[in-house]
Protein backbone atom coordinates (compact mmCIF):
# COMPACT_ATOMS: atom_id res chain seq x y z
CA UNK A 1 0.00 0.00 0.00
CA UNK A 2 1.28 3.46 -0.91
CA UNK A 3 2.33 5.86 1.84
CA UNK A 4 -0.35 8.19 3.16
CA UNK A 5 0.29 11.37 5.07
CA UNK A 6 -0.97 11.58 8.63
CA UNK A 7 -3.80 13.96 7.73
CA UNK A 8 -5.28 11.39 5.30
CA UNK A 9 -4.38 8.24 7.22
CA UNK A 10 -5.97 9.49 10.44
CA UNK A 11 -8.93 11.27 8.87
CA UNK A 12 -12.04 10.69 11.04
CA UNK A 13 -14.54 8.14 9.70
CA UNK A 14 -17.27 8.75 12.30
CA UNK A 15 -18.81 11.73 14.02
CA UNK A 16 -17.27 10.68 17.33
CA UNK A 17 -13.79 10.83 15.79
CA UNK A 18 -14.13 14.52 14.91
CA UNK A 19 -12.33 16.49 17.62
CA UNK A 20 -13.13 19.97 18.82
CA UNK A 21 -16.50 20.23 17.02
CA UNK A 22 -18.84 18.40 19.38
CA UNK A 23 -21.52 21.09 19.08
CA UNK A 24 -21.84 20.34 15.36
CA UNK A 25 -21.57 16.56 15.37
CA UNK A 26 -24.17 16.25 18.12
CA UNK A 27 -26.62 18.41 16.14
CA UNK A 28 -26.15 16.42 12.95
CA UNK A 29 -26.58 13.09 14.74
CA UNK A 30 -29.81 14.24 16.37
CA UNK A 31 -31.11 15.45 13.02
CA UNK A 32 -30.47 12.03 11.50
CA UNK A 33 -32.11 10.25 14.43
CA UNK A 34 -35.27 12.35 14.22
CA UNK A 35 -35.27 12.34 10.40
CA UNK A 36 -35.11 16.16 10.26
CA UNK A 37 -32.66 16.36 7.41
CA UNK A 38 -32.25 19.74 5.75
CA UNK A 39 -31.86 19.97 1.99
CA UNK A 40 -28.81 22.26 2.24
CA UNK A 41 -25.99 22.77 4.76
CA UNK A 42 -23.18 25.31 4.84
CA UNK A 43 -20.06 24.67 6.94
CA UNK A 44 -17.83 27.63 7.72
CA UNK A 45 -14.72 28.10 9.81
CA UNK A 46 -10.91 28.29 9.69
CA UNK A 47 -8.78 25.96 7.62
CA UNK A 48 -8.05 22.45 8.78
CA UNK A 49 -10.76 22.16 11.47
CA UNK A 50 -12.85 19.39 9.85
CA UNK A 51 -15.39 21.00 7.51
CA UNK A 52 -14.89 18.69 4.51
CA UNK A 53 -14.38 15.67 6.77
CA UNK A 54 -17.67 16.30 8.55
CA UNK A 55 -19.42 16.73 5.19
CA UNK A 56 -18.16 13.31 4.04
CA UNK A 57 -19.20 11.66 7.29
CA UNK A 58 -22.66 13.22 6.99
CA UNK A 59 -23.02 12.01 3.41
CA UNK A 60 -21.91 8.52 4.44
CA UNK A 61 -24.26 8.45 7.45
CA UNK A 62 -27.25 9.42 5.29
CA UNK A 63 -26.55 6.62 2.79
CA UNK A 64 -25.37 3.95 5.24
CA UNK A 65 -27.31 0.69 5.02
CA UNK A 66 -26.83 -0.19 8.70
CA UNK A 67 -26.44 3.04 10.68
CA UNK A 68 -25.62 2.67 14.36
CA UNK A 69 -26.79 5.52 16.58
CA UNK A 70 -26.75 7.86 13.54
CA UNK A 71 -23.15 6.84 12.88
CA UNK A 72 -22.00 5.17 9.64
CA UNK A 73 -21.07 1.54 10.14
CA UNK A 74 -18.11 1.67 7.69
CA UNK A 75 -18.74 -2.03 7.00
CA UNK A 76 -21.64 -2.11 4.58
CA UNK A 77 -21.12 -2.04 0.85
CA UNK A 78 -22.30 1.55 0.58
CA UNK A 79 -19.87 2.79 3.27
CA UNK A 80 -16.97 0.94 1.69
CA UNK A 81 -17.82 2.35 -1.72
CA UNK A 82 -17.92 5.88 -0.30
CA UNK A 83 -14.63 5.38 1.58
CA UNK A 84 -12.99 4.26 -1.68
CA UNK A 85 -14.47 7.29 -3.53
CA UNK A 86 -16.14 5.00 -6.07
CA UNK A 87 -19.79 5.99 -5.62
CA UNK A 88 -21.68 8.15 -8.07
CA UNK A 89 -24.14 9.36 -5.46
CA UNK A 90 -21.57 11.51 -3.61
CA UNK A 91 -20.27 14.25 -5.90
CA UNK A 92 -17.45 16.47 -4.58
CA UNK A 93 -16.93 19.70 -6.49
CA UNK A 94 -14.12 22.20 -6.09
CA UNK A 95 -15.70 25.64 -6.10
CA UNK A 96 -12.45 27.29 -7.17
CA UNK A 97 -12.14 25.17 -10.33
CA UNK A 98 -15.84 24.98 -11.24
CA UNK A 99 -16.93 28.50 -10.51
CA UNK A 100 -18.47 29.46 -13.84
CA UNK A 101 -22.14 29.60 -14.77
CA UNK A 102 -21.73 26.76 -17.30
CA UNK A 103 -20.67 24.35 -14.54
CA UNK A 104 -23.66 25.39 -12.43
CA UNK A 105 -26.02 24.81 -15.35
CA UNK A 106 -24.59 21.31 -15.75
CA UNK A 107 -25.07 20.70 -12.04
CA UNK A 108 -28.69 21.85 -12.23
CA UNK A 109 -29.35 19.33 -14.97
CA UNK A 110 -27.75 16.44 -13.06
CA UNK A 111 -29.78 17.21 -9.93
CA UNK A 112 -32.91 15.90 -11.60
CA UNK A 113 -31.61 12.31 -11.77
CA UNK A 114 -32.21 9.97 -8.85
CA UNK A 115 -29.33 8.33 -6.95
CA UNK A 116 -28.06 5.10 -8.42
CA UNK A 117 -27.71 3.13 -5.21
CA UNK A 118 -27.99 5.21 -2.05
CA UNK A 119 -30.90 7.03 -0.44
CA UNK A 120 -29.64 10.50 -1.29
CA UNK A 121 -27.66 12.15 -4.00
CA UNK A 122 -25.32 14.51 -2.14
CA UNK A 123 -23.30 17.36 -3.63
CA UNK A 124 -20.31 18.56 -1.56
CA UNK A 125 -19.06 21.90 -2.90
CA UNK A 126 -15.81 22.94 -1.26
CA UNK A 127 -14.63 26.57 -1.26
CA UNK A 128 -18.09 27.66 -2.33
CA UNK A 129 -17.22 31.33 -1.87
CA UNK A 130 -15.16 31.14 -5.08
CA UNK A 131 -18.27 30.87 -7.25
CA UNK A 132 -19.11 33.89 -9.36
CA UNK A 133 -22.06 36.15 -8.73
CA UNK A 134 -23.81 34.82 -11.82
CA UNK A 135 -23.29 31.24 -10.65
CA UNK A 136 -24.85 31.99 -7.29
CA UNK A 137 -27.85 33.63 -8.93
CA UNK A 138 -28.35 30.70 -11.27
CA UNK A 139 -28.19 28.34 -8.31
CA UNK A 140 -30.82 30.07 -6.15
CA UNK A 141 -33.96 28.36 -7.44
CA UNK A 142 -32.45 24.90 -7.42
CA UNK A 143 -31.10 25.41 -3.91
CA UNK A 144 -34.45 26.61 -2.58
CA UNK A 145 -36.52 23.74 -3.96
CA UNK A 146 -34.26 20.82 -4.82
CA UNK A 147 -35.59 17.30 -5.48
CA UNK A 148 -36.37 15.24 -2.39
CA UNK A 149 -33.43 12.91 -3.04
CA UNK A 150 -30.84 15.73 -3.34
CA UNK A 151 -28.82 17.34 -0.52
CA UNK A 152 -26.25 20.12 -0.87
CA UNK A 153 -23.34 20.56 1.55
CA UNK A 154 -21.23 23.71 1.15
CA UNK A 155 -17.87 24.35 2.83
CA UNK A 156 -16.08 27.70 2.98
CA UNK A 157 -13.45 29.60 4.93
CA UNK A 158 -14.84 33.01 3.91
CA UNK A 159 -18.51 33.06 4.76
CA UNK A 160 -18.73 36.83 4.24
CA UNK A 161 -18.12 36.28 0.50
CA UNK A 162 -21.18 34.07 0.16
CA UNK A 163 -24.37 35.97 -0.71
CA UNK A 164 -27.00 36.19 1.99
CA UNK A 165 -29.53 34.74 -0.43
CA UNK A 166 -27.51 31.52 -0.42
CA UNK A 167 -26.91 31.46 3.35
CA UNK A 168 -30.60 31.99 4.10
CA UNK A 169 -31.46 28.81 2.16
CA UNK A 170 -29.04 26.65 4.16
CA UNK A 171 -28.49 25.46 7.70
CA UNK A 172 -25.31 27.19 8.85
CA UNK A 173 -22.73 25.50 11.08
CA UNK A 174 -19.75 27.47 12.40
CA UNK A 175 -16.62 25.40 13.07
CA UNK A 176 -14.28 26.57 15.83
CA UNK A 177 -10.51 26.76 16.13
CA UNK A 178 -9.27 23.62 17.80
CA UNK A 179 -7.80 24.18 21.24
CA UNK A 180 -4.11 23.66 21.90
CA UNK A 181 -4.66 20.86 24.40
CA UNK A 182 -6.98 19.05 21.97
CA UNK A 183 -4.37 19.15 19.22
CA UNK A 184 -1.68 17.94 21.63
CA UNK A 185 -3.88 15.05 22.74
CA UNK A 186 -4.64 14.03 19.15
CA UNK A 187 -0.98 14.15 18.12
CA UNK A 188 0.01 12.20 21.20
CA UNK A 189 -2.46 9.43 20.30
CA UNK A 190 -1.14 9.33 16.74
CA UNK A 191 2.46 9.21 18.02
CA UNK A 192 1.61 6.33 20.35
CA UNK A 193 -0.03 4.42 17.50
CA UNK A 194 2.94 5.07 15.21
CA UNK A 195 5.52 4.19 17.91
CA UNK A 196 6.98 7.70 17.90
CA UNK A 197 8.68 9.01 21.05
CA UNK A 198 7.82 12.67 21.60
CA UNK A 199 7.67 14.80 24.74
CA UNK A 200 5.08 17.35 25.88
CA UNK A 201 7.28 20.34 25.08
CA UNK A 202 7.70 19.25 21.47
CA UNK A 203 3.97 18.62 21.10
CA UNK A 204 3.34 22.13 22.40
CA UNK A 205 5.71 23.64 19.83
CA UNK A 206 4.00 21.84 16.96
CA UNK A 207 0.49 22.63 18.22
CA UNK A 208 1.21 26.33 18.71
CA UNK A 209 2.71 26.51 15.24
CA UNK A 210 -0.48 25.00 13.79
CA UNK A 211 -2.54 27.88 15.22
CA UNK A 212 -5.77 25.95 15.80
CA UNK A 213 -5.69 23.87 12.59
CA UNK A 214 -5.42 20.13 13.20
CA UNK A 215 -4.53 19.42 9.57
CA UNK A 216 -1.58 21.85 9.78
CA UNK A 217 -0.44 20.17 13.00
CA UNK A 218 -0.55 16.75 11.35
CA UNK A 219 1.43 18.03 8.37
CA UNK A 220 4.09 19.49 10.69
CA UNK A 221 4.12 16.20 12.58
CA UNK A 222 4.93 14.33 9.36
CA UNK A 223 7.70 16.80 8.59
CA UNK A 224 9.23 16.43 12.05
CA UNK A 225 9.19 12.63 11.81
CA UNK A 226 10.97 12.79 8.47
CA UNK A 227 13.72 14.92 10.03
CA UNK A 228 14.10 13.36 13.48
CA UNK A 229 12.99 9.78 12.99
CA UNK A 230 11.28 7.81 15.74
CA UNK A 231 12.64 9.95 18.59
CA UNK A 232 11.77 13.64 18.56
CA UNK A 233 13.18 16.31 20.89
CA UNK A 234 12.18 19.93 21.26
CA UNK A 235 15.57 21.46 20.45
CA UNK A 236 15.75 19.72 17.08
CA UNK A 237 12.16 20.68 16.29
CA UNK A 238 12.85 24.32 17.15
CA UNK A 239 15.80 24.39 14.75
CA UNK A 240 13.94 22.60 11.98
CA UNK A 241 10.83 24.80 12.16
CA UNK A 242 12.90 27.89 13.04
CA UNK A 243 10.85 28.47 16.17
CA UNK A 244 11.85 30.72 19.07
CA UNK A 245 12.29 28.73 22.26
CA UNK A 246 10.07 29.87 25.15
CA UNK A 247 13.10 29.80 27.45
CA UNK A 248 14.28 32.97 25.71
CA UNK A 249 11.18 34.84 26.88
CA UNK A 250 11.69 33.70 30.46
CA UNK A 251 15.24 35.01 30.23
CA UNK A 252 13.91 38.47 29.36
CA UNK A 253 11.38 38.52 32.20
CA UNK A 254 14.05 37.39 34.68
CA UNK A 255 16.39 40.12 33.41
CA UNK A 256 13.70 42.76 34.07
CA UNK A 257 13.41 41.58 37.67
CA UNK A 258 17.19 41.45 38.17
CA UNK A 259 17.99 44.65 36.22
CA UNK A 260 20.50 42.72 34.11
CA UNK A 261 21.28 44.77 30.99
CA UNK A 262 23.77 42.23 29.63
CA UNK A 263 20.90 39.90 28.78
CA UNK A 264 19.49 42.49 26.35
CA UNK A 265 22.43 42.39 23.98
CA UNK A 266 22.95 38.64 24.36
CA UNK A 267 19.31 38.04 23.42
CA UNK A 268 19.27 40.32 20.39
CA UNK A 269 22.54 38.78 19.15
CA UNK A 270 21.08 35.26 19.56
CA UNK A 271 17.98 36.24 17.59
CA UNK A 272 20.13 37.73 14.85
CA UNK A 273 22.50 34.75 14.64
CA UNK A 274 19.67 32.20 14.45
CA UNK A 275 17.86 34.16 11.76
CA UNK A 276 14.70 34.55 13.80
CA UNK A 277 12.21 37.20 12.86
CA UNK A 278 12.22 40.15 15.27
CA UNK A 279 8.50 40.64 14.76
CA UNK A 280 7.87 37.00 15.73
CA UNK A 281 10.03 37.55 18.80
CA UNK A 282 7.98 40.60 19.79
CA UNK A 283 4.73 38.67 19.29
CA UNK A 284 6.03 35.84 21.45
CA UNK A 285 7.26 38.24 24.14
CA UNK A 286 3.88 39.97 24.17
CA UNK A 287 2.14 36.62 24.62
CA UNK A 288 4.63 35.71 27.36
CA UNK A 289 3.81 38.75 29.50
CA UNK A 290 0.12 38.21 28.78
CA UNK A 291 0.50 34.73 30.26
CA UNK A 292 2.19 36.19 33.34
CA UNK A 293 -0.65 38.68 33.78
CA UNK A 294 -3.22 35.89 33.37
CA UNK A 295 -1.56 33.77 36.04
CA UNK A 296 -1.28 36.71 38.46
CA UNK A 297 -4.89 37.81 38.01
CA UNK A 298 -6.45 34.34 38.12
CA UNK A 299 -3.82 32.55 40.23
CA UNK A 300 -4.29 29.62 37.85
CA UNK A 301 -2.12 28.19 35.09
CA UNK A 302 -4.79 26.27 33.22
CA UNK A 303 -5.69 29.27 31.09
CA UNK A 304 -2.14 29.53 29.73
CA UNK A 305 -1.44 27.70 26.46
CA UNK A 306 2.01 26.33 27.12
CA UNK A 307 3.91 23.16 27.96
CA UNK A 308 3.59 21.64 31.41
CA UNK A 309 7.25 22.37 32.16
CA UNK A 310 6.57 26.12 31.87
CA UNK A 311 3.46 26.28 34.05
CA UNK A 312 5.55 26.13 37.22
CA UNK A 313 7.73 28.98 35.98
CA UNK A 314 4.69 31.14 35.33
CA UNK A 315 3.36 30.39 38.80
CA UNK A 316 6.62 31.65 40.35
CA UNK A 317 5.95 35.15 38.97
CA UNK A 318 2.87 35.68 41.13
CA UNK A 319 4.80 37.44 43.91
CA UNK A 320 7.31 39.24 41.67
CA UNK A 321 5.48 41.32 39.06
CA UNK A 322 2.72 43.76 39.96
CA UNK A 323 -0.41 44.25 37.87
CA UNK A 324 0.47 47.85 37.09
CA UNK A 325 3.97 46.95 35.87
CA UNK A 326 2.64 44.21 33.61
CA UNK A 327 0.07 46.54 32.08
CA UNK A 328 2.81 49.10 31.38
CA UNK A 329 5.00 46.42 29.79
CA UNK A 330 2.13 45.10 27.64
CA UNK A 331 1.22 48.60 26.50
CA UNK A 332 4.86 49.30 25.61
CA UNK A 333 5.21 46.02 23.69
CA UNK A 334 1.97 46.66 21.79
CA UNK A 335 3.32 49.99 20.53
CA UNK A 336 6.64 48.33 19.72
CA UNK A 337 4.79 45.67 17.72
CA UNK A 338 3.35 48.33 15.43
CA UNK A 339 6.49 50.46 15.16
CA UNK A 340 8.71 47.48 14.38
CA UNK A 341 6.96 46.82 11.07
CA UNK A 342 8.09 50.17 9.73
CA UNK A 343 11.61 50.22 11.21
CA UNK A 344 14.67 50.02 8.99
CA UNK A 345 16.88 48.66 11.78
CA UNK A 346 14.79 46.19 13.75
CA UNK A 347 17.73 44.88 15.79
CA UNK A 348 18.54 48.35 17.15
CA UNK A 349 14.85 48.97 17.83
CA UNK A 350 14.62 45.75 19.85
CA UNK A 351 17.77 46.58 21.84
CA UNK A 352 16.45 50.01 22.79
CA UNK A 353 13.06 48.57 23.73
CA UNK A 354 14.49 45.79 25.91
CA UNK A 355 16.86 48.25 27.59
CA UNK A 356 13.91 50.44 28.50
CA UNK A 357 12.04 47.43 29.88
CA UNK A 358 14.99 46.29 32.00
CA UNK A 359 15.51 49.82 33.34
CA UNK A 360 11.83 50.24 34.10
CA UNK A 361 11.21 51.23 37.71
CA UNK A 362 8.51 49.52 39.72
CA UNK A 363 5.23 51.39 39.92
CA UNK A 364 3.09 52.01 42.96
CA UNK A 365 -0.57 52.72 43.38
CA UNK A 366 -1.83 56.03 44.73
CA UNK A 367 -3.05 54.40 47.94
CA UNK A 368 0.38 52.86 48.52
CA UNK A 369 2.07 56.22 48.04
CA UNK A 370 -0.31 57.99 50.41
CA UNK A 371 0.04 55.34 53.11
CA UNK A 372 3.81 55.40 52.71
CA UNK A 373 3.96 59.17 52.99
CA UNK A 374 1.87 59.06 56.14
CA UNK A 375 4.09 56.45 57.70
CA UNK A 376 7.32 57.94 56.36
CA UNK A 377 8.48 54.62 54.90
CA UNK A 378 8.46 55.63 51.24
CA UNK A 379 11.64 56.71 49.55
CA UNK A 380 11.44 58.72 46.35
CA UNK A 381 14.40 58.13 44.08
CA UNK A 382 15.78 60.90 41.97
CA UNK A 383 17.17 59.90 38.58
CA UNK A 384 17.28 61.28 35.09
CA UNK A 385 15.28 59.68 32.31
CA UNK A 386 18.33 58.59 30.31
CA UNK A 387 20.54 57.24 33.12
CA UNK A 388 20.56 53.64 34.11
CA UNK A 389 23.48 53.53 36.57
CA UNK A 390 23.43 52.38 40.16
CA UNK A 391 24.77 55.72 41.38
CA UNK A 392 21.57 57.46 40.35
CA UNK A 393 19.46 54.81 42.05
CA UNK A 394 21.35 55.40 45.29
CA UNK A 395 20.69 59.15 45.21
CA UNK A 396 17.33 59.17 46.98
CA UNK A 397 15.64 61.26 49.65
CA UNK A 398 12.99 60.30 52.08
CA UNK A 399 9.57 61.83 51.69
CA UNK A 400 9.90 63.82 54.95
CA UNK A 401 13.20 65.41 53.81
CA UNK A 402 11.64 66.45 50.51
CA UNK A 403 8.62 67.95 52.24
CA UNK A 404 10.85 69.95 54.64
CA UNK A 405 13.02 71.21 51.78
CA UNK A 406 9.94 72.32 49.85
CA UNK A 407 8.64 74.15 52.88
CA UNK A 408 11.95 76.01 53.32
CA UNK A 409 11.94 76.92 49.65
CA UNK A 410 8.42 78.29 49.88
CA UNK A 411 9.27 80.35 52.98
CA UNK A 412 12.49 81.73 51.49
CA UNK A 413 11.00 82.74 48.18
CA UNK A 414 9.12 86.06 48.18
CA UNK A 415 5.54 85.93 47.04
CA UNK A 416 5.27 87.76 43.73
CA UNK A 417 2.89 90.64 43.55
CA UNK A 418 0.16 90.23 40.99
CA UNK A 419 -2.48 92.61 39.93
CA UNK A 420 -5.98 91.37 40.55
CA UNK A 421 -9.41 92.62 39.80
CA UNK A 422 -10.71 91.65 43.24
CA UNK A 423 -10.90 94.44 45.84
CA UNK A 424 -8.06 94.95 48.32
CA UNK A 425 -8.09 92.63 51.31
CA UNK A 426 -8.73 95.39 53.83
CA UNK A 427 -11.62 96.75 51.84
CA UNK A 428 -13.13 93.31 51.31
CA UNK A 429 -12.83 92.42 54.97
CA UNK A 430 -14.30 95.75 56.04
CA UNK A 431 -17.17 95.23 53.62
CA UNK A 432 -18.06 91.80 55.04
CA UNK A 433 -20.52 92.59 57.78
CA UNK A 434 -24.05 91.78 58.55
CA UNK A 435 -25.16 95.27 59.69
CA UNK A 436 -25.29 97.68 56.83
CA UNK A 437 -26.79 101.11 56.71
CA UNK A 438 -27.02 103.89 54.21
CA UNK A 439 -23.96 105.69 55.62
CA UNK A 440 -21.67 102.66 55.34
CA UNK A 441 -22.81 101.95 51.82
CA UNK A 442 -22.27 105.58 50.85
CA UNK A 443 -18.71 105.41 52.21
CA UNK A 444 -17.91 102.27 50.27
CA UNK A 445 -19.84 103.16 47.14
CA UNK A 446 -16.88 104.63 45.27
CA UNK A 447 -14.72 101.55 46.02
CA UNK A 448 -17.53 99.36 44.75
CA UNK A 449 -17.79 101.41 41.55
CA UNK A 450 -14.02 101.27 41.02
CA UNK A 451 -14.04 97.51 41.47
CA UNK A 452 -16.85 97.09 38.95
CA UNK A 453 -15.21 99.42 36.47
CA UNK A 454 -11.97 97.44 36.60
CA UNK A 455 -13.71 94.30 35.43
CA UNK A 456 -16.09 95.83 32.90
CA UNK A 457 -14.69 99.25 32.20
CA UNK A 458 -15.99 99.47 28.65
CA UNK A 459 -19.59 98.52 29.47
CA UNK A 460 -20.30 99.87 32.95
CA UNK A 461 -17.95 102.82 33.54
CA UNK A 462 -20.09 105.34 31.54
CA UNK A 463 -23.22 104.06 33.30
CA UNK A 464 -21.98 104.10 36.90
CA UNK A 465 -20.67 107.62 36.47
CA UNK A 466 -24.31 108.72 36.18
CA UNK A 467 -25.71 106.95 39.27
CA UNK A 468 -25.46 107.36 43.04
CA UNK A 469 -27.20 105.77 46.05
CA UNK A 470 -30.17 107.68 47.44
CA UNK A 471 -31.83 105.25 49.81
CA UNK A 472 -31.25 101.90 51.62
CA UNK A 473 -33.80 100.04 53.76
CA UNK A 474 -31.57 97.16 54.86
CA UNK A 475 -32.23 95.01 51.76
CA UNK A 476 -33.00 97.26 48.80
CA UNK A 477 -30.50 99.86 47.60
CA UNK A 478 -32.06 102.53 45.38
CA UNK A 479 -29.87 104.27 42.88
CA UNK A 480 -30.49 107.69 41.34
CA UNK A 481 -29.75 108.32 37.67
CA UNK A 482 -29.47 111.64 35.92
CA UNK A 483 -29.94 110.04 32.53
CA UNK A 484 -33.18 108.16 31.79
CA UNK A 485 -31.36 105.71 29.47
CA UNK A 486 -28.93 104.68 32.19
CA UNK A 487 -31.60 102.79 34.11
CA UNK A 488 -32.52 100.57 31.14
CA UNK A 489 -28.85 99.95 30.32
CA UNK A 490 -28.03 98.96 33.90
CA UNK A 491 -30.97 96.53 33.99
CA UNK A 492 -29.23 94.52 31.26
CA UNK A 493 -26.46 93.79 33.76
CA UNK A 494 -28.76 93.22 36.74
CA UNK A 495 -27.51 89.68 37.48
CA UNK A 496 -23.85 90.72 37.43
CA UNK A 497 -24.46 93.78 39.63
CA UNK A 498 -26.41 91.73 42.23
CA UNK A 499 -23.66 89.12 42.41
CA UNK A 500 -20.95 91.77 42.66
CA UNK A 501 -22.74 93.70 45.39
CA UNK A 502 -23.29 90.51 47.42
CA UNK A 503 -19.58 89.64 47.26
CA UNK A 504 -18.48 93.19 48.08
CA UNK A 505 -20.86 94.15 50.88
CA UNK A 506 -20.98 90.70 52.48
CA UNK A 507 -24.75 90.26 52.25
CA UNK A 508 -27.49 90.22 49.69
CA UNK A 509 -28.30 93.72 48.48
CA UNK A 510 -31.00 94.22 45.89
CA UNK A 511 -30.09 97.00 43.51
CA UNK A 512 -33.09 99.11 42.53
CA UNK A 513 -33.07 101.95 40.03
CA UNK A 514 -34.87 105.24 40.36
CA UNK A 515 -34.60 108.81 39.06
CA UNK A 516 -34.04 112.21 40.71
CA UNK A 517 -36.58 113.84 38.43
CA UNK A 518 -40.32 113.91 39.26
CA UNK A 519 -42.58 112.08 36.87
CA UNK A 520 -43.73 115.32 35.32
CA UNK A 521 -40.20 116.48 34.83
CA UNK A 522 -39.29 113.05 33.48
CA UNK A 523 -41.99 113.25 30.78
CA UNK A 524 -41.09 116.83 30.04
CA UNK A 525 -37.48 115.87 29.72
CA UNK A 526 -38.46 113.05 27.43
CA UNK A 527 -40.41 115.45 25.23
CA UNK A 528 -37.52 117.87 25.31
CA UNK A 529 -35.18 115.11 24.31
CA UNK A 530 -37.43 114.14 21.42
CA UNK A 531 -37.94 117.72 20.28
CA UNK A 532 -34.33 118.65 20.53
CA UNK A 533 -33.04 115.45 19.00
CA UNK A 534 -33.35 116.76 15.51
CA UNK A 535 -31.87 120.12 16.52
CA UNK A 536 -28.84 118.45 18.09
CA UNK A 537 -28.40 116.13 15.17
CA UNK A 538 -28.32 119.08 12.85
CA UNK A 539 -25.33 120.46 14.74
CA UNK A 540 -23.40 117.19 14.29
CA UNK A 541 -21.09 117.44 11.37
CA UNK A 542 -19.84 113.84 11.33
CA UNK A 543 -22.24 111.76 9.14
CA UNK A 544 -21.45 108.53 11.08
CA UNK A 545 -22.37 110.13 14.38
CA UNK A 546 -25.63 111.37 12.83
CA UNK A 547 -26.55 107.83 11.72
CA UNK A 548 -25.72 106.36 15.15
CA UNK A 549 -27.90 108.95 16.96
CA UNK A 550 -30.84 109.11 14.59
CA UNK A 551 -31.14 105.50 13.43
CA UNK A 552 -29.50 103.42 16.14
CA UNK A 553 -30.71 105.38 19.18
CA UNK A 554 -27.28 106.55 20.35
CA UNK A 555 -26.62 109.63 22.40
CA UNK A 556 -23.78 112.06 22.94
CA UNK A 557 -22.02 111.89 26.34
CA UNK A 558 -20.39 115.07 27.51
Characterise this structure.
Helix content is 55%, strand content 10%. The protein has five domains: 6-174, Rossmann fold (3-Layer(aba) Sandwich); 180-241, Helicase, Ruva Protein, domain 3, CATH 1.10.8; 246-358, Up-down Bundle (Zinc Finger, Delta Prime, domain 3); 368-381 and 391-412, no CATH class; 425-516, GMP Synthetase, Chain A, domain 3 (2-Layer Sandwich), CATH 3.30.300. The longest helix is centred in the middle third of the chain and has 21 residues, at 278-298. Helix 5 (101-111) packs parallel to helix 6 (133-144), helix 9 (200-210) packs parallel to helix 11 (234-241) and helix 14 (278-298) packs antiparallel against helix 16 (323-340). The chain contains 27 helices and twelve strands. The model is unreliable at 381-400, 417-434 and 515-528 (pLDDT under 50). The termini are far apart. The strands form four sheets. Strands 2-3-4-1-5 form a five-stranded parallel sheet, with helices on one face. The chain has a three-stranded mixed sheet with strand order 10-11-12. By secondary structure, it is of the alpha/beta class. Helix 5 (101-111) links the parallel strand 2 and strand 3.
Strand order of the largest sheet: 2-3-4-1-5
How many DSSP E strands?
Answer: 12
Largest beta-sheet details:
5 strands, parallel
**CATH topology heading of the largest domain:** Rossmann fold
Assigned CATH superfamily of the largest domain: P-loop containing nucleotide triphosphate hydrolases
Helix content: 55-70%
Count of alpha/pi helices: 27
The overall pLDDT, averaged over residues, is 80
List the domain count as a whole number: 5
List segments where confidence is low: pLDDT < 50 over at least 5 consecutive residues: 381-400, 417-434, 515-528
Categorize the overall geometry: elongated
Please state roughly what percent of the residues sit in beta strands, choosing from under 5%, 5-15%, 15-25%, 25-35%, 35-45% or over 45%: 5-15%
- In whole angstroms, how far apart are the ends? 120 Å
Radius of gyration from the CA trace?
A: 44 Å
Helix/sheet category: alpha/beta
Just give the CATH class of the largest domain: Alpha Beta
CATH architecture of the largest domain: 3-Layer(aba) Sandwich
Amino acid sequence: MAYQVTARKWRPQKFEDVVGQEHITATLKNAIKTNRIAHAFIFTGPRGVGKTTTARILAKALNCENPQDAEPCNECAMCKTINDSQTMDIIEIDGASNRGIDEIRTLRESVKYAPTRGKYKIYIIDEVHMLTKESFNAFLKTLEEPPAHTIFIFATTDIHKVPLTIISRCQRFDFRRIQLDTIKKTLSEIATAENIIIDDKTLTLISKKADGALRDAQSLFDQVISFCGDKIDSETVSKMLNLIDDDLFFTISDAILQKDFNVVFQTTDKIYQNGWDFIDFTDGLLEHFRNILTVILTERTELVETAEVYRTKYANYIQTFSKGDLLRILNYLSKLQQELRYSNNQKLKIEIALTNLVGLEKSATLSEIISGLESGNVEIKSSTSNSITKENNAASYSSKQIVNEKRREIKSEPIPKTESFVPPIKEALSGIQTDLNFESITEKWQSFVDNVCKEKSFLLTPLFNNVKPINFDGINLQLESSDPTTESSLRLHQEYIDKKSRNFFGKKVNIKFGSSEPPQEKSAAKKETTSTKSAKSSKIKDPYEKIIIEELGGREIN
